[in-house]
Amino acid sequence: MPETSNPINSSTSAIPERFKVIGLTILAVFICYIDRVVISLTIIPMGAELGWSQTEKGIILGSFYAAYMLTQIYGGALSDRIGGKTVLGVGLIVWSIFTIVTPFAAAAGFFILILARLGMGLGEGVTFPAWHSLYARWVPKSERSRAVAATNSAIPIGTVFGLIVTPIIIINIGWQWAFYLYGGIGFVWYYFWKKYVTSSPKDSKNISKEELEYIVENAPASDAGETLPFKKWITNKPLWAIIVAHFCNNYSLFVFLSWLPTFINEKLGIQLAAIGFIAMIPHLVSFAAGNLGGYFADNLSKRGIRLITIRRLCNTIGFGGSAICLCLVPEFNTTFAVIGILCVGNAFGGFIAGGFIVNHADIGPKYTGRLMGITNTFAAIPGLVGGILTGIILDVTNSWDMVFYVTAGVTAFGGLFYLIFASTEKQFD
User: Fold this and answer.
1) Dihedral sign computed on CA atoms, order 41, 47, 53, 57
2) Closest CA to 412 of 238, 244, 237, 240
3) pTM for this prediction
4) pLDDT at position 348 over 60
């Protein structure tokens, strides 16, 4: 077998080491989104119990992202230097601790709860830069879109799990226990992460010679780049294409991650026990569509299609289709129709797995963690702004229509900006 061929089962165990890294990373993102979505459901009984307005709910939901922004760039740079394993592991433990203490913070008062949400955001802020940095060293180029798609699919799956299980916990043992149980999962994960994962394949004691040679030959980066000067990235148009696309995509993601259960409850009249089952359907579509989008992009690459064409095509389908569907939501009044059109929008959105989200390693392989940290810093802003703005829109207009129109406009702009300025040429190496 040639050294550059894919040694699927060439490691000393039945499972290649890179698959273990990917699998445990998927679990980390899964846990991340369980912990992130729990507040969107528990805020319904918490708000009723504590008398919060829609704007106050928006502040609670959005405060997480104020801190989430702060650790993105530093987390990415640190991951590139000392390893994504360490940074992601510490980050997960931090956010798990703050998840567990959330009920105590809520009992202590509104502002103490905000502080707990900020602490959780600091921990989760390193997640995506860390695993992107890890994948730049562990995942060969030919597997990159699929690996990223599979990992991003943990976002809807974690969300679905949280949406289904959280109401059961709330109804049977109280909303506080949702935080206790979900936070505890992180400590179990950390045991296996510390035992089986290394930041670089060169550091793995279990990897076979064949798999190591294959990864080194085909991975985007074998080591970290030097310091990335501010002037070099702040003026780079291809990077700004990713930043804007990431910002606009996350505006939609975070608004509905935070507010979809409330929309289903207030607008569609669905009670708490059934909210999770209704809200999970669009997220399940995202899971399937994201993985299909990754396979679609990798298959186009194998057929010899230019990489920039693939990125632009996938991104345009994802953003354009989603924006159209969001504009159509206010035209429907039944639960079936609304959820159906959201599902169609998420099906289109799955194509971004081959678009901007994987573009960081194209333009700066040695700086993947730092670039992801930069773009995700900007992409965290809509979590704060979108959450609060949605609450204000609802308090002022008492209507959900404007929420969907604003989200559609932001999404369309992101797709157009990326189409014009995106590149796959190396910018920083």
Assistant:
1) negative
2) 244
3) 0.71
4) yes
Q: Name the pLDDT band for 12 (thresholds 50, 70, 90).
A: very low
Segments forming the whole domain that contains residue 82: 17-220+234-421
Rg (CA), the chain: 21
Do 64 and 118 meet the contact criterion of CB atoms below 8 Å apart? Answer: yes
Measuring CA to CA, how many Å separate 315 from each of 108, 319, 329? 45, 6, 22
Q: How confident is the model at residue 1 (pLDDT cuts 50, 70, 90)?
A: very low
Q: Provide the number of structural domains found in the chain.
A: 1
**Separation of alpha carbons 344 and 369, rounded Å:** 32
The whole-angstrom separation of Cα 337 and Cα 321 is 17
* Position 160 in a domain: yes
Confidence of residue 2 (pLDDT cuts 50, 70, 90): very low
Q: Over the stretch 196-228, which tens digit does the pLDDT of each residue have?
A: 888 888 888 888 888 888 887 876 655 554 566
**DSSP type of residue 228:** -
d(CA 25, CA 86): 12
How far, in whole angstroms, is CA 55 from its chain's centroid?
25
User: Residue 118's domain is classified under what CATH number?
Assistant: 1.20.1250.20
Question: Residue 135 domain-assigned?
Answer: yes
How far is the C-alpha of 21 from the C-alpha of 131, rounded, in Å? 10
- % residues pLDDT > 70 (the chain): 94
Residue 226 belongs to a domain: no
Are 374 and 239 in contact by the 8 Å Cβ rule? The answer is: yes
Question: Would residue 429 count as lying in a domain?
Answer: no
SS3 breakdown of the chain: % helix, strand, coil, rounded to 5?
A: 80, 0, 20
Amino acid residing at 84: G
The dihedrals phi and psi of 305, each to the nearest 5 degrees, come to -70, 135
For residue 188, how many C-alpha atoms fall within 13 Å in the half-sphere facing its CB?
A: 7
